[in-house]
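Entry 14. Structure prediction run on the chain below.
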Amino acid sequence: MYDIAIIGGGVTGCAIARWLSRYKLKTILIEKHEDVASETTKGNSAIIHAGYASPDGTIRCKMNVKGNPMFDQAKKELHFDFERVGSFVVAFTDEDMKAIEHELKQARERNIPGEIITDIKRIKTMEPNISDKVKGIFYAPTAGLVWPFGLTVALAENAFENGVEFLFSSPVTGIRKTEKGFTIQAGEKQIDTIIVINAAGVFADDIAKMVGADDFTITPRKGEYILMDRGSCPVNYILFPTPTIVSKGILVCPTIEGHTFIGPNAQNQESKTDVRTTSAGLNEIIVGGRKLLPSIPIRSAITNFAGLRAVSNRNGDFIIEPSKVENFINVAGICSPGLSSCLAIAEYVVSLVKDHTTLKVEENPDWNPIRKPQKRLVDMNEDELSEAIKERSQWGRVVCRCETVTEAEIVDAIHRPIPCTSMDMIKKRIRPGMGRCQGGFCTPKILKILSRELDKPVTEITKNDKGSEMVFARTKQLEIQPWKGDKP
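Output returned:
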């Protein structure tokens, strides 16, 4: 019997798992995919918002304002990539100027640093390639960038090392209320638990319905993106247009790794799994991005992708509350600024466990907040690299040229606290395949390393979930079937 079962291994679920690991609790996180950060967390803008944008009185406002400052301490403890680069909201008209004045007012009321800048020369000095039509900007210096995969993995690894169990490749297909709590059918396993925390993203309403907590619905909102090659589209700050009722708009944004992206748009849809990009959507974000940065070189795009945001029917606000079913807590509708809010959400959820459930919560005196980072070539100087190669020749073999990832790093990732068993798991942790060639050079090499380290035939190595095997046989071993078509 577990004390707590968390359903969902996105950044919110993993943040909750890590916060719960501070206490003497038997906790398990259940994820339907083979790894954390496999749905909403892997397709977003990677921005830590300053906190001025969400409407007053909303839960997302409260969580964002509290969550933003928490990232500095979390970075020290967990060693993930995070940088406060600052953001602009760009005004082109008198109406836009009124909008950014409203955002400045909200920022001041929430004690968030910010200023309106109308000196065009200063704006151009800060962001040289911004549109010449700019009339003014609202500048928020505490906005930041994070690598969502690195953050989520760091939270999960620290939770794991502090005793939280992880059950992967186990979709929840049923939950039964019992005298002592709940029985969860997760893949082929049954999990008995006193408390359930529902952090299932776009599927949170489906999970809640399994126990009769059907008082909210989630609408998937698709956002499409285009990612530019590193160095091809320099931008210093996160550039927002003035916001709409539906979203913060199509933006131009640097990434923590030195790329630039444009997007997202916002399109509600019925499907909770459709993350295909569309010609119309990509054209929409090109037009929107060039409004802010006219020089965007679309020919330098290296990939495009889409993600789904979980939008609740409660005016799009977060749902973080005990449900009408005892000991079942919903953490749902975590759309933007969910990434920015995840640490504050985790802290708040633990307070709900303490105050609104039957569980006794005691602090764990052995809790260790520090997660040992993985050693990376890109962080080494020449002397450090030379010593590393002397100790282990794998440091001298670069497998991914675009992101400069060595064989040593891939081997180490495979054997981290949460082991890597697929191509995408390696990709999420140390970035091979995320650069210019999108895995064209390194994929065969990584397949061989995974096969060797896991002692599996290369034909059993998957891209991600079961059924995504990448190699079927050697070419000369394929049986060639005779042509059965019409004769010419």
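Residues 377-460 form a domain with the Arc Repressor Mutant, subunit A fold (CATH 1.10.10).
Filed with the rest of this week's runs.
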